[in-house]
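I am still getting used to backbone structure tokens and would like to learn alongside you. Label the sequence line and the structure token line clearly, so we can match residues to local backbone shapes. Would you write everything just below, so we can both look at the same thing?
***
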Amino acid sequence: MSSYTDPLHLNEMSLFRELQDNLSKNIKDTRNILEIRDNVLYVWNAKDFCVVTLNIAATRGEIGEDVPYQKLRPTDPPIFEIKNLLINETGTQLALWGNMGLVLMELPKRWGKEGMFQGGKEEILCVVYKFDHFNSTVEIRKVRWHPGSTNDSHLLVLTSENTFRLYECELGGTPRLIKSWRVGRMPYGSPVKIPNFSSLGDTAVDFDFATPTLRKPEMFTGRDINKNNVIDWNQIEWPILVLRGNGEVLTVHGNLLLDNHESPMVSASLTMYPPADDNYGIDSCSIMCLQTTPPIVVIAMCSGKIYHAILLREELNDGGDDDDADRRIWSQYGSTYSLCTQDEALYVYECVEIELGLFFADTDEKYSCPIHLRCDKGNKSRYFCSHNAGIHMVSLPMVSQLDEYINTPDENEDARLPSLLNQSSSQYLICRRTKHTGTNEATPILGFGLLQEPCVLVALLHTGDVVARSVIDLHYFPKIELPEPIINVEKKVHKEAFDVYIKRLLKRETSQPIMKIGSKSMTLRECLQLLYHSTDIFRKEHFVRHDNVREEIGKKVHALKVMKTHLLKELDTLMEAKKELTQTAERLAERYEDIKDEQEKLAQRAKEVLRLVNYKEPSMTPMERAEAEELRKMEVKIEETKIRLLELKKKSTQQAKHAENHECNDRRKEIVFRGDQENTIKNNLGHITRDIKTLITEVKKLEEEVSI
């Protein structure tokens, strides 16, 4: 396969080569056995009875290399045919279901390099739980995980008996049936000539969850619901939209997750505006609710028509007639379900008709088949349709308009209501049928997933081939959050951006898909006719629009060049002004430095003057004056003591000299004193010693008092 249809070279990997050999050749209907979640691809291998996983993000960095894959092998393989693979939001459990059964597989932990299961083990044995509430006469119509489950473990199942079953699937435990209720009469077997409810389209074929609402909104009137502990979690419910084959849409209200005996309330069929004779088709096959405000409901028909409607609260007249009341309220005694009055209505604002295969003329026989709807979690403004004829992508400009209208402040009177001029558009991404494809030739899509950043669609064909195509939405750009400037609302002008204008010019009604034609060979005339048809589409839908865009871009470039010349002149003027301002700033900086130095000098002089003024000011208190007088007296005493010390030092020096002289005289001659002389000398010396000690003591006391 060419690199255009397989840029990731997935068909060259051993996983898909093995899967291609193991696929059954008798598959007739479109299903979904492939899923991508958190850059991990999951696909069901029916022949090997296991789920094969591949880190598909690693293939981008290792183009041409065979990336290893893992097998999640169930402990008890299911014996029925698996048609759908469904993973919960937390990636802990995986539901495998078909028309005849449902099993639940616990997914192992991921760690190590590239986040592989159990660090990269090739085969992992996974615990599987079976649901024992289904028999051979009951078929499963739809299975969805409940979005309001706090631990992401509640599974809702719709069966062919017009019955809902809600299961609690906790990790490590067997699924437990919580509630079961009906949304219509149970179909029963009938003779061939008598039509039953299934043939009349009175059975439920699909369902989806609407946006959450309050069970009793009147309890919270006038209260701020954004504050903590205002709304009880039990007061929040997720309404369910149920689609019947005849186009009727029912709603189921009630908090299903509460483990109580309260039965859900099933409303009568929603009124659809504007009314239509055929109730917008009698071959409805799929429904999807986009989580917007207000919610947008998408209803698909087998003929290729897709209706877009807004779910709003309906205002009923109090004085309505009895027929209207009978149509809205119905109950049947003794039945297990009842229809109650519904307050909502569907307001259909557009219809998109997609091509189920490529046909060359209006007289060609049209093809019809069930259409499976799937939302894009990364972009609410688009969704995908898979069917036996290929894959479509539908863009919804209404989503961005509703978001802009809802987020507009209340005081903004210029807020515009959503416009219907920007209609939805469809792109044919992958085509599987043409007018030359046989009626009984099977061309289903077995599953597809979306690899984000950038968005790449990976689809598995019934032949086992894998098609990977980049999804480019010309009507959507990622929203970049910028700081909100202060804008005067009264003078705000709504101007169309140039890229939006170019997108509007490039918008086309038809697209050229990738064609995967069956094994049946085509004649040269048929190939030439197909080539002429494709060439005509390019001439009418592509080349003309591109010529117009080229002309508009040329005008824009010329205008930008003129603006550039003007801005360059303005830039030169601003540079001259900048140079003058720089010189002026330098002069002012020099003057500032001089003024600053002079100011510092003046500040120092003022400080000195203030100090001198405070010193000369006779503002001493009596206590301060007493202390000052005492200090003056102490200074006088200190001076006297210093004088007496000097005198003592002189006397001490003289005595030392006298002692030396006496020693010298003693050496010369020995002087003999009498007893009375010796006593007199001793007494004098004793008196002198005592006087000296007394003086020394007084000096020390004075020093301690003066703190010298």
Observations:
- The helical segments are 14-22, 58-61, 322-328, 397-406, 498-506, 524-616, 622-668, 675-706.
- The two ends are 107 Å apart (CA to CA).
- Confidence is low (pLDDT under 50) at residues 190-197, 320-336, 489-493.
- The CA atoms of residues 33 and 108 lie 19 Å apart.
